[in-house]
Amino acid sequence: MRSPRSRSFLNRRRADSCTPWRRCALGLVAACAVAPVAAQVQIPEAQAVEDLAAFAATYHDRAGWERRAALLRTEILQAAGLVPLPRRTALRVVRHSKVRRDGYSVENVWFEAFPGFFVSGNLYLPAPQRPASDPEPKAPRRLAGILCPHGHWAEGRFRPDMQKRCGVLARMGAAVFTYDMAGWQESTQVDHRKDKAVLTYQVWSSMRAIDFLCSIETVDPRRIGVTGASGGGTQTFLLAALDDRVAASAPVVMVSAHFFGGCNCESGLPIHRGPRHRTNNAEIAALAAPRPQLLVSCGKDWTKNVPRVELGYVRGVYRLFGKAELIENAHFAAEGHDYGASKRKPVYAFFAARLGLRAATAEDESRVEVLPHASLRCFDAQHPRPTHAVVGRERVAAAFAASRRAKVVR
Known about the structure:
Structural class: alpha/beta
CATH superfamily of the domain at 94-127 and 140-376: Alpha/Beta hydrolase fold, catalytic domain
CATH class of the domain at 94-127 and 140-376: Alpha Beta
Helix content: 25-40%
Strand content: 15-25%
Shape: globular
Order of helices and strands: HHHEEEEHEHEHEHEEHEHEHHH
Distance between the termini: 32 Å
Largest sheet: 9 strands, mixed
Number of helices: 12
Number of strands: 11
């Protein structure tokens, strides 16, 4: 085990690199492989409180937490089918149909997360800043990059509230990428409701989405954020837990100690419980420590207990790093399960403070135009999905397995 003086998971990353965390105890995991444990969806609230106390009893200082955190990351990756991680093959990014609006632009983007499997989404960029005294636009300083995964709402990334959020964050000075869940909207290569491997593909696609943001020359790889609600909230805290390139995260209406998510992409695989580990979403959120994190919760869903239950546990972990102030909570006791304007406001302020964005431009969402779905689609008659796309559970699974044997992109 590492000594308390060893560099932490966060500090081991190279500040100028987009290389992700890969510390997986592959030999140990292979030696301990056994029959899979059934995934969990929900437990009684009282049991969740007892579980958090039991988890806290397994460590007493930062070094003890870091040992537990390393075990949890390894076991979560193993349960998710991500040990070993696939090779980082060429993204083969396609960007088209750029539309310029007030203070930002939107373009349609797709890339290959692994050969034959495409991630479709939209890239929002801030318009170049033009000082009143200078008629020529100036090249902006390097941008923060923010991922915006969506939840299980029918319109997905096309929803008006998603467009508002992405447009405002772009006007604040970030490169923002919102993308389809595996098997949702334009992602039709797998069945989101029937294929449990969508959890695997979504985590990997989110990691590749960071690769995509980092490939943009104007994006600062040290200022990567992620935020989403509901199923997008699950993607948010899983990505922050497993990829240390995430510098700040804001999971919305999803972090709960007693509810694990009812979809394949959240609890379809046994990431919360296995032969060598037991955890819950509150502890998974704590794996982001000590990087800044905002938990957004409400009184009318499973995040109702966050201020008195989950927040205390997560803050206790942050306190081990001497960074208790970097975990925040915005709670809306009278509200329900959404990513409405009231919940977006503290997220804007959070990213302004933690990623160095322009706070003043967050005040007026009316300046963001909601575009029709058709204009945001990646694949159409002029831009068809590549013919080598793999479709169906077996073919996608085979392509994913093959990606682990592919050559690394240099």
